[in-house]
Amino acid sequence: MQKIRSQTSLTGVENYENNYMELPFENIVREYRKKNILEIVKKYPHSQFLEIGCGADPLFMEIRDFTKMVVVEPSTLFYQMALANANANEYGNILVINDLIENITDKLQEEFFDFIVIGGFLHEIKNPEAVLQAVRKIATKNTLVYSFVPNIKSFHRLLAYEMGIIESINQKSGHDKLFQRQNSYDPDTFNKLLTHNGFSVVESGSYFIKPFTHAQMNELLSTGIIDKNCLDGLDKMQKHLPGMGAEIYNVCRLQ
């Protein structure tokens, strides 16, 4: 089997990776995030796949029915993890690149992708428009693009507002400050970000109703007050509380 090709251009990262992996309850949210992504991907063609920002969970660990996957990950640690997982499983149809998507747009324009996943980082950077414009150059009229971000109109933020804990749903949380998050989105503003950058929304929604903060949810789970069955129920509750999930997603294509 062909060894996975890799390209490295970035060295040195901040403490983002460790904070991300050590965040209480984040591993649970990742589980429901992945569930949503897999459900969406299965609905659409995804033979030629591009994942931008794979984090600790590259999609090739779950999805195998593609002919080629390109993974672009700017974090050195997550890049190394993705590369190690790909090589360990002897996947020969994956290209792993350690770079910013904006830096390699010209090269990726030579490829055809029918499905692109933008990881949940558009809220963490100052220039989400630059990423979307890079993706716009890479995509074709047949390409579907999926992305997700935290939801400032999630159940737990609205509850905190109504309890008087926060003065506004736009107020930065401790996690926002920890990760130096630059932007915040609700379903409407996330749609506008995409449409203003040349995309048409095909499908949108939210997932996993989270009643309380990460730390509070983690404590409830660790003490046995709630269990996996309750978590699954909270994920299903989004159909009764549309747009109030912990995170929101969009599937879009070029206008």
Commentary on this structure:
The protein has 255 residues and is an alpha/beta fold. The chain has one domain: Vaccinia Virus protein VP39 (Rossmann fold, 3-Layer(aba) Sandwich), CATH 3.40.50.150. It is built from 10 helices and 8 strands. An 8-stranded mixed beta sheet has the order 1-4-3-2-5-6-8-7, with helices on both faces. The longest helix is centred in the first third of the chain and has 18 residues. It starts with a strand and ends with a strand. The N terminus is likely disordered.
Proportion in helices: 25-40%
Count of the domains: 1
Low-pLDDT regions: 1-6, 8-13
Instruction: Kindly provide the radius of gyration, computed on alpha-carbon positions and rounded to a whole number of angstroms.
Output: 18 Å
Distance between the termini: 40 Å
Q: Write down how many β-strands occur, each being a DSSP E stretch of 2 or more residues.
A: 8
**CATH class term:** Alpha Beta
Shape: globular
Classify the fold: give the CATH topology: Rossmann fold
| Mean pLDDT over all positions | 89
From the coordinates shown, what is the CATH architecture? 3-Layer(aba) Sandwich
